[in-house]
Amino acid sequence: MTSDSNTNTMVDCEFCKIVAGDAPSSIVYQNDSTLAMMTLRPMTRGHILVIPKKHAASLSEMEYKTGGELFEVGMKISEALRDSEIESEGVNFWLADGEAAGQEVFHVHLHVLPRSETDEIRLIGPRLDLNRSEMDSDAETIKKHINLDE
Known about the structure:
Elements: E1 3-4, E2 9-10, H1 14-20, E3 27-30, E4 34-38, E5 48-52, H2 64-83, E6 90-94, E7 110-115, H3 132-143
Antiparallel strand pairs: 1-2, 3-4, 4-5, 5-7, 6-7
């Protein structure tokens, strides 16, 4: 991928093409830093992606403030979904960061997924059976690496 330094976009990135107006999309909402659009491969009716307008392939490339804005727009979208005619008894937010997490498009995007009791989407898989000592040890390991002062 090549970068266009004038617009902070990646020339080969489909989401950056949408932000630039060079690819079609069904935009639900946008402001100076974020854009919300219908996804091309929805899991349910009303499945929306919220993206930063400035290209970031992963969370580590995105400013914390932008991450908060993505979540705020996602919350507003979920309220709109619940108020609309689209079936939305619940909402899942989902963000995959990295290939191992299932990220397929390498431009950060938050899925806002309206849910109903009758949809067949399930997050299932094996669960670990950790004891409190193991959880405490993991918590201490993670705490050592959190830097909230940045």
